[in-house]
Amino acid sequence: MSIADNLARVKSALPDDVTLVAVSKTKPQSDILEAYNAGQRIFGENKVQEMVSKWEQLPQDIEWHMIGHLQRNKVKYMAPFVALVHGVDSERLLLEIDKQAQKHDRIISCLLQVHIGQEQTKFGLDANELMALAQKVKSGGFPNIKIKGLMGMATFTTNEAQVSTEFRSLKLHFENLKEILPDMDTLSMGMSGDYKLAIDEGSTMVRIGSSIFGARNYPV
Ligand SMILES: *Cc1c(COP(=O)(O)O)cnc(C)c1O
């Protein structure tokens, strides 16, 4: 199956109001162009350097999403162009994104990452940290940031009931947080292995890599 075929198959499984982020990390520019020529405009990367070099060389109407764990000292490189930062998991990181956004006279859209899975190694805010950060956003602490919603990753397991429960909890956080930040409209959850479950639980944005571009050759 070609990338264009894979893309068409994935898209046919998505409701119209669910946004597809094609996760192109580790993949060459030729693969991205193939998806681009089939109509895809939103791509997700998890390494800043890699995203910057793809941004420099690929069509300028691509929307680049940073989906990975982010180090503060790398924020400056993507600040001129990044369209959405999915993995904001600390106040210090949000402050740095705000500062760099200001330098470039931009408002940068961000999602707060919530820890929903069971793996200790996965990143994300807990419920208390989430509330505290949302309050600071509401009181104007980050003038060049727009919090668009939440992002989360379910546990890597074949237990679908568990995955669904975790996505449901993220959706609940999302609904609760809307009382503080009523403009939020984006719930980023679901990857190749679990996006159908995520959509059933209210996802509005899925991040899909291997189902479109094929397996990655090395772990990231
Ligand atoms: C790699 C990655 C994805 C896509 O994973 P696939 O299983 O290839 O669809 C989605 N979200 C994040 C945060 C990722 O790092």
UniProtKB/TrEMBL annotation:
Domain Alanine racemase N-terminal: 3-216
Domain of life of the source: Bacteria
Aminoacyl-tRNA synthetase is among the record's keywords: no
Gene Ontology terms, MF aspect: pyridoxal phosphate binding
Keywords: Pyridoxal phosphate
SUPFAM superfamilies: PLP-binding barrel
N6-(pyridoxal phosphate)lysine modifications at: 25
Cofactor(s) essential for the protein: pyridoxal 5'-phosphate
InterPro entries, sorted: Ala_racemase_N (IPR001608), PLP-binding_barrel (IPR029066), PyrdxlP_homeostasis (IPR011078)
Family: Belongs to the pyridoxal phosphate-binding protein YggS/PROSC family.
Protein role: Pyridoxal 5'-phosphate (PLP)-binding protein, which is involved in PLP homeostasis.
Name of the featured protein: Pyridoxal phosphate homeostasis protein
Species assigned in the record: Sediminicola luteus
